Amino acid sequence: MSEIDRIMELAKHRTGLLQDAVDGVGALRVVVSSEGGIVTATVDGLGALVDLRITDAITAMNSQTVAALTVATIHQAVQQSNDERERLVSELRVALKQT
């Protein structure tokens, strides 16, 4: 195998690793429910809110409580998404160092 062939194979391999990481982030969905399941937030791999569900139980709550519970649940989902994305990036770093 020539030097250029070896370099091309390494580049292809690293490109595959990068694509796997991008695909992993793209497929990531984190679902978090508040205590009692009143609020459920789903965020994607970039931390964007993609779904928010609130049960009828909020009708017995005041608006400040509903707002606080909603924001806290979304925040927790975003944090978990960030943690998972960081794990995927760390795995990519390790894999790239090994090649």
Automatic annotation (TrEMBL):
Q: Name one GO molecular function term.
A: DNA binding
Q: Which UniProt keywords apply?
A: DNA-binding
Q: What is this protein called?
A: DNA-binding protein
